[in-house]
Amino acid sequence: MKKKRFLATVLTATLAIGMFAGCGKNEDAVEVAAVKSEEPSTTGKDATKEAEKALKVTVTINVKADKGWDKDSTPAIAHIVSRDKKTDFYHAVRPDNAGSTGTTTVKLAGGNYNVGFVSPLNKDGSAYDVQGTGKAKEIELEVKTDAKDGVKVDCPMTQVPADKVTDEMLRDIIDKTQDAVENGDESMKGDAGKDVLEKLGENVGNSPNASDKTKEEAGAIKGDANTDPKESEEAKKEDGKKDQGLCTLFIFTGYGG
After folding, report:
1. Rounded to an integer, what distance in angstroms lies between the CA atom of residue 157 and that of residue 121?
2. 192: burial class by Cβ within 10 Å (0-12, 13-18, 19+)?
3. 37 Cβ neighbours under 8 A, 6+ residues apart
């Protein structure tokens, strides 16, 4: 009996010393397989639902303006939010070379979403009634994983002449565009994000109804907004693995026999 306790104590000490010696050294770290309790597996309908959530569906966003939207304009910005609020991001839709129309795609998991749009601002200071409503209106979007041809979202825009675009409307576009750059995907980051802010500042400056304060604000947000790409969760995990080794401590209590 005493011999068994002695051997258990020696084994515990050996494991602890070996693992502590490897802590913090990623290259020399020894991975020790720990025995985990078995968790109930997901089967049947639950398994199917989980698999469907993991699937990504191609969503095509089509934006069409009646006139005026071109390479000197800011993009139309789609704000995509899932009903459960777990997905919430902005994506830029830029006009094609011919102007007036723009098409882009995003990948979404199956589920229900609301899609809203931030109006572009043209070089002459004109803007748009998005979806022809006169004010922002969200599109209800259902993404089905069995949609063989993907899902489409259409957004028509009617131009509002520059002299009809009020200072209040401009400030709303500024605030929403800045928020989009801060919380957007790769289409709003890096050089793409800086380009959006540069065009916004210039186009606000050309608006006949923009107040001095609004022009100043539009010119200042370029330096204030964060246009750095967000680090992916996968990259963070990999960095975490490189920064620290595996350190595990086994404690044996109540051993008898």
Report:
1. 12
2. middle
3. none
Q: Under DSSP, is residue 57 helix (H, G, I), strand (E, B) or coil?
A: strand
Q: Are 157 and 204 in contact (CB under 8 A)?
A: no
Q: DSSP string covering 144-204, please?
A: -TT-TT-EEEEEEEEEE-GGG--HHHHHHHHHHHHHHHHHB-GGGSHHHHHHHHHHHHHHH
Average pLDDT, stretch 63-71? 97
201 contacts 218 by C-beta, under 8 angstroms: yes
Tell me the per-residue pLDDT of 110-135, one tens digit each, with 9 for 90 and over. 999 999 999 999 999 999 998 665 55
Residue 186 · residue 232 · CB < 8 Å: no
- 143's tokens: 């993404």
The answer to whether 184 touches 226, Cβ cutoff 8 Å, is no
Q: What is the pLDDT of residue 148?
A: 85
Q: What global pTM score does this model have?
A: 0.68
Name, in order, each residue with C-beta under 8 angstroms of 99's C-beta and a sequence gap of 6 or more.
69, 70, 71
The gap from C-alpha 92 to its chain's centroid, in whole angstroms, comes to: 12
Computed on alpha carbons and rounded to an integer, the radius of gyration of the chain in Å comes to 27
Closest CA to 159 of 212, 188, 121: 121
**Torsion, CA 80, CA 81, CA 82, CA 85, rounded to 10:** 150
